[in-house]
């Protein structure tokens, strides 16, 4: 039997803007936020979209009053990746420590996260939050966080985004979102970092048909995702960062189409979890 190595839980899988509408709640309406529970017992969070609200509540519930030491990896700072941070409950307790990791300069990250909570956007200013907050610059790595090894790689996206390869006890999770395929210098680095991953989480915002009129928007397709998954010999592919316009029915159709290209594919669903 495989020992538990990394547990991945998806708290938000939608791209661009939350979609709390009945026709897409099957896969979920919250924007991107993932939790990796590491073998060490520590938690690594990827992004703070609106899914971070429920993650924060769950973390507090599970902590049973103990202080939390959380590492948050930030892909980039578009709204759909930061909008849950003001509602991330662990930030409101002085006992907790939250470290934001980014390939941007730490002082810039602090300014950006403070910026979305300044007057008149939000009633509580970021610098007044009770938790101990730190900002850490991530290089290409590897760096050790909570007992996991984290490597970064650049993605092709307006204003830039960062991909992550996280390894712990032989389990490998690769997060490649937000990303538009087609620029060799980005695609090659992504492929190299995705090799032999247990799970590849890939930006599949568009169908190939939609992509024809969405070039330059910074997102990829389910078809490209299957190509990378095959070339990188990953064990499982998660199609992620769903377009706000995609209903549950459309996402089920995408899952069927994608499975013809790469059998071990799933459309990411809010709330689902995976043990690697
Ligand atoms: Zn996004
Ligand atoms: Zn983006």
Comma- or semicolon-separated keywords:
globular; 24% helix; Metallo-beta-lactamase, Chain A; single chain; 7 helices; seven-stranded mixed sheet; binds zinc ion; 276 residues; alpha/beta
- Return the CATH architecture: 4-Layer Sandwich
Per CATH, the class reads Alpha Beta
**Count of domain modules:** 1
- Decide which structural class fits the backbone: alpha/beta
Helix count, DSSP H or I runs of 4 or more residues:
7
What spatial order of strands do you see in the largest sheet?
6-5-4-3-2-1-14
CATH-assigned fold name: Metallo-beta-lactamase, Chain A
User: SSE order in H/E notation?
Assistant: EEEHEHEHEEEEEHEHHEHEE
Helix content: 10-25%
Overall pLDDT: 96
Task: Give the helix/strand layout.
Blueprint: E1 7-12, E2 33-37, E3 43-46, H1 52-63, E4 69-73, H2 79-82, E5 97-102, H3 106-115, E6 132-137, E7 143-145, E8 148-155, E9 161-168, E10 171-176, H4 184-194, E11 199-203, H5 208-211, H6 222-231, E12 236-240, H7 248-261, E13 265-267, E14 273-275
Parallel strand pairs: 3-4, 4-5, 5-6, 10-11, 11-12, 12-13
Antiparallel strand pairs: 1-2, 1-14, 2-3, 7-8, 8-9, 9-10
The structure holds zinc ion (ZN) (2 copies).
One zinc ion is lined by residues 15, 78, 80-81, 178, 241.
Structure characterization notes:
- β2 and β3 form a beta hairpin.
- The strands form two sheets. This protein has a seven-stranded mixed β-sheet. Strands 7-8-9-10-11-12-13 form a seven-stranded mixed β-sheet.
- The chain is α/β, with parallel strands linked by helices and 276 residues long.
- The chain is built from seven helices and 14 strands.
- The chain has a single domain (7-268), classed as Metallo-beta-lactamase, Chain A.
- The chain binds zinc ion (2 copies).
């Amino acid at each position: 039997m495989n020992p538990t190595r990394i547990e991945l839980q998806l708290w938000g899988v939608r791209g661009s803007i939350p979609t709390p509408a009945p026709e897409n709640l099957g896969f979920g309406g919250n924007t991107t936020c993932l939790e990796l529970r590491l073998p060490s017992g520590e938690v690594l969070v990827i992004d703070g979209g609106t899914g971070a609200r429920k993650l924060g509540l769950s973390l507090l519930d599970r902590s049973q009053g103990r202080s939390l030491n959380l590492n948050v990896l930030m892909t980039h700072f578009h709204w759909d990746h930061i909008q849950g941070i003001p509602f991330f409950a662990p930030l409101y307790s002085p006992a907790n420590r939250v470290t934001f990791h980014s390939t941007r300069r730490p002082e810039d990250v602090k300014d950006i996260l403070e910026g979305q909570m300044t007057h008149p956007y939000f009633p509580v200013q970021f610098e007044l939050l009770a938790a101990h907050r730190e900002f850490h610059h991530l290089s290409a790595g590897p760096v050790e966080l909570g007992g996991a090894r984290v490597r970064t790689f650049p993605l092709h996206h307006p204003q830039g985004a960062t991909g992550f390869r996280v390894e712990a006890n032989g389990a490998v999770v690769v997060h490649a979102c937000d990303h538009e395929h087609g620029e060799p210098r980005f695609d090659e680095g992504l492929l190299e970092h995705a090799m032999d991953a247990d799970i590849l989480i890939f930006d599949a915002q568009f169908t190939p048909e939609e992509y024809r009129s969405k070039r330059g928007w910074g997102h990829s397709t389910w078809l490209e995702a299957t190509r990378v998954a095959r070339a990188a010999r990953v064990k499982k592919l998660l199609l992620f960062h769903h377009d706000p316009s995609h209903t549950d029915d459309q996402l089920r159709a995408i899952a069927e189409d994608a499975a013809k290209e790469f059998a071990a594919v799933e459309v990411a669903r809010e709330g689902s979890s995976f043990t690697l």
